[in-house]
Amino acid sequence: MSKEGFDYIIVGAGTAGCLLANRLSADPHKRVLLLEAGGKDDYHWVHIPVGYLHCIGNPRTDWCFQTEAETGLNGRSLRYPRGKVLGGSSSINGMIYMRGQSRDYEHWADLTGDDTWRWPRVLRAFRRHEHHWRLDDPKTAPEGFADMHGHRGEWRVEQQRLRWPILDAFAAAAQQAGIPATSDFNAGTNEGVGYFEVNQKKGLRWNTAKAFLRPTCLGRPNFELWTGAQVRKLRLLQDDTGLRCSGVEVLTPHGVEQPWLNAGGEVILAAGAVGSPQLLQLSGLGPGALLQRLGLNVKADLPGVGANLQDHLQLRTVYKVQGTQTLNTRSASLLGKALIGLEYALRRSGPMSMAPSQLGAFTRSSPDQAWPDLEYHVQPLSLDAFGEPLHRFDAFTASVCNLNPSSRGHLHITSPDATVAPAIQPNYLSTDEDRRVAVESLKLTRRIVSQPALAGLQPEEFRPGPQVQTDEDLVRVAGDIGTTIFHPVGTCKMGRRDDPTAVVDSRLRVRGVSGLRVADASVMPTITSGNTASPTLMIAEKLAGWLGG
């Protein structure tokens, strides 16, 4: 450890933390410490795209959280993956590159009163770290593409390295149902159907550790990275100027360490929508009554810490098909598995290069809806539940989620011990509006599948099944088949000074505490209309710019 302390301590070497470490340590006069509770990303399944199957639920790479029993899910508890490894959730996620919709950021600007969050300005942050495949040869890129995308950044965006006839047929059916084709989900409105672009490089997962730590950041003398280092609490001091964060207490394999800051330095929490509010609460920053019940000294009563939890709930429908092959049967035999492995070894293509979802669609739950409020993740496979074997018949899965849920949950610590997982209660489908959208989305899926483009494949609804018809039954079955897409946000939301539930201001400073910021998905006041990894990078990029990085 640096004997002189650090100018910046970043808690969490995940999606946001790796970018921040890169940007801030670029100044040789600033000493930066990056802390990661998990280990190095040297597990081979982190880098093989299909390896998410071996990383989620694996304590080597995943915190292995569970939600509380959910009333809206008919009493079920869900697995709640969060990356516990260098690269964080970017090492175990679906690799989908998705910014959301321009209206998301216009809404953030309205909620915070800060125009820096408006779409034209966040677009610059997205482009700064983007390295888009279409601009490898600018002459072949569509007109105006370079105005929306970047090419000199670290965050590689590529085409997927496979196509499936069943997915092409679903895309054609979606167009017949009124959803236009699109080749770019990231130009401000993501309405349309097309193949997702992914954060991969030559058939390998491109996580934030590769993008932002190697090789430049790790070679800087003013930068330190600690893995296996779990922050137990923040060091908070009261002086004449008020409450200040002066460092962190860290548990490492060598015992308890207490890194400190120089005057004027900052601690930046980038531990995610679960880890950041958990750490604030453990440190005495959170709902006063909760902290008192647990015997914690309340340093600042911040009721919004752990509140405002939002997530995307996907409703996984499964259809059997005839006359086309899906991954269910392609991988059923030892020979099939061997051929899949050989294709990946020789070409870095085929099913082992697959993101969890390949085809996407954004559309509206009803004709009078002002913007796309549904997202589809479509897969050429089916299974009873994540981690279970594939079905022995050919089928595809069409998962649909409400992009803008009105349900709000919360996250609370249950012990002063940092090693005890918090209680996570998303409260899925807890509002009439969310239940209505769930019903409409299941009906829309049936309309898409009934189109002529799929008729030749004789699709047969396997899950939930054609017997489910009434709105009441559709709500019940949504609770049976709904599961998270792993997009928790909002638990340290940013907001105006007069918002009592805001945890950070629009520049991500924790209310009432100097020297402390949060920069991850937890600061989103409302969830973005799509996958959340790249918006989290944008948030980190914005903060880096404000800090001179």
UniProtKB/TrEMBL annotation:
* InterPro entries noted in UniProt: FAD/NAD-bd_sf (IPR036188), GMC_OxRdtase (IPR012132), GMC_OxRdtase_N (IPR000172), GMC_OxRtase_C (IPR007867)
Cofactor section: FAD
- Gene3D superfamilies associated with the record: FAD/NAD(P)-binding domain, Glucose Oxidase, domain 3
Query: What single Pfam family name could you report for this chain, choosing any that match?
Result: GMC_oxred_C
Q: Does the keyword Flavoprotein apply?
A: yes
Residue limits of the Glucose-methanol-choline oxidoreductase N-terminal domain? 83-106, 272-286
List residues traversing the bilayer. none
Q: Which family does it belong to?
A: Belongs to the GMC oxidoreductase family.
Q: What is this protein called?
A: GMC family oxidoreductase
The source organism is Pelomonas margarita
